[in-house]
Amino acid sequence: MKNNKRKIINDPVFGFINIPNDFLYDIIQHPYFQRLNRIKQLGLSSFVYPGAQHTRLQHSLGAMHLMGEAIAQLRDAGHEITSAEAEAVRACILLHDIGHGPFSHTLEHSLVSGVSHEEISLLMMQQINQELNGKLEMALDIFTNHYPKKFLHQLVASQLDMDRLDYLSRDSFYSGVSEGIIGAARIIKMLNIYNDQLVVEAKGIYSIEKFLVARRLMYWQVYLHKTSVAAEKMLMNILKRAKELASRGIELFGTPALRYFLYNEINDTNFGKSDEALLNFALLDDSDIVSSIKVWSSHSDIVLSTLSKAFTNRRLFKVQVSSQAIDKSLKESQLKQYVAHFGVDFAEASYFMGEEIVTTDTYSPEDDSINILYKDGTVKDIADASDMLNINVLTKKVEKYYYCYLRL
Fold first, then answer.
1. Are 70 and 188 in contact (CB under 8 A)?
2. I need a labelling partner for 83 at 20 to 30 A (CA). Which of 12, 136, 263, 362 fits?
3. Is the residue at 402 inside a domain?
C-alpha cells in the first residue's frame, strides 16, 4: 500500500528532513504539536539577535532528523534497534518539548506555579496516546526512562542528546553566533553503546570538547545574555501584575485561554487533575501574550501600562551583572524614586525592578556523564579523558547576579 503521508521538509540547518511514515506524520499534524509553530524556540532572544525567530516546531523536527541519523549509526555499529523502537524514540524526541509555554519558562514562574514544562509534556503525550489508542506507550516508557534499553532515553534526554545537538546547531545558525557551531554529524558518527550506555568512540573526543565549549559560549552569549534576562524579567513582572489585578476582580483584556490562567489559581496540585487546565494551556502561544500586552499598554493601572508599553517598544530593564547580590540600600533608593515618580506604593514600585541569580555548569558528570570508549574496551568520563585544561573548568558551577531595573 502506498504511503501518502510521506513528506520531505526543507530545513535550512540540516537540509532535507524525511518524515518516514504515517504515524510520525499524524503526530506532527496533531494540534498540540502544531502549536509549537507559534512559540519561538529562543523566547525573547530576538530582542538581542533579531534573526532568532525560529520556532519550537522547527527544533523538534530537527531533533527527529538527528534521531534518525543516530539510529542508523548505532545499527551500523551492530546494535539492534527494532523498527518499533526506532519509531517510538523518534516520536519521543518529536514530543519532548510539547509542554513548553509561550516564551519558554516565563509562564512557569508567573501564571502557573510549580508545574514544569516536562510535567506538562508528559500530560500532553498521555493525552495524545489515548487519542492514538495506545500507540505512544513505548515512546512514553522511553520518555520516563522506564524502557529496558536505557540508551534510548539517553538519546532523548542526557548531556549528549539529540535535543542539544539540534538546538545548539539551530540557535547558532539563526542567531548568527558562530561560536555555537558544532559538528553534530561528526558526533553522531562517533556514537556507540557500551553496557546499555551511550558512549562516544575515542576518535570523537575533540568533537565533544568543541561541543562543550560551544555550549558554554552559547549559554552566556545567547541564552543568558543580560538583555534577554532583562526582557524575561520584565515579561514575568507584567504577567504577575496582571495576575494580581485579576485576583482583585479588575477586568483585563485577554484571549479566553490567557484569561483562564489569569482569573484561576492553577498550580502543581490541580493542573494535572483538570482537563480544562490542559485544554487552555494547549491553546496558549506567544501571540496570546503579545496581543494582550499591547492592549494593556493603555490600561488604567500605571504599573501594568508602563511595563507593557516599555516591553512592546523595547524599552527594557537595564541590567547590572555582578558576582554578588546588589546592595540593599541601592534597591531601596531605586524604590523611593519609583514611588515618587509614579505615585505608587512600595509594593507596586517593586514591579519596576527584579533580581535573578543565574547558575549554570556546562558539564556535570554527577547528572549524566559523557563517556569516551577506547579501542581496548575501557571507558572514561570526558572530564578525565580530555587533555584540554578548560574541561575541568566547565564542570564548575558559575553563579552571576542580575539586577534589573526600569530607567526613568
1. yes
2. 12
3. no
**Which tens digit of pLDDT belongs to each residue from 168-181?**
999 999 999 999 99
Q: For residue 229, what is its C-alpha cell?
A: 534576562
In 3D, which of 405, 313, 393 has the Cα closest to residue 351? Answer: 405
Q: Are residues 234 and 177 in the same domain?
A: no
Mean per-residue pLDDT over the chain, rounded: 92
From residue 376, give the alpha-carbon distance in Å to each of 78, 202, 304, 373.
Answer: 18, 10, 64, 8
Say if residue 1's pLDDT is above 50. Answer: no
Domain that holds residue 137: 7-224+364-394
Average pLDDT of span 249-272: 92
- Same structural domain for residues 25 and 163? yes
CA dist 320 and 70 (Å) reads: 42
CATH, residue 86: 1.10.3210.10
| 184 and 293 together in one domain | no
Q: Express each pLDDT in 335-386 by its tens digit.
A: 999 999 999 999 999 999 999 888 876 776 666 789 999 999 999 988 888 8
Give the predicted TM-score (pTM) of the model: 0.94
Tell me the residue length of the chain: 408
Instruction: Enumerate the active-site residues.
Output: 117
- Specify the residue for cell string 564542570: 395
How far is it, in rounded angstroms, from Cα 171 to Cα 240? 29
In terms of domains, do 376 and 326 share one? Answer: no
What's at 124, amino acid-wise? M
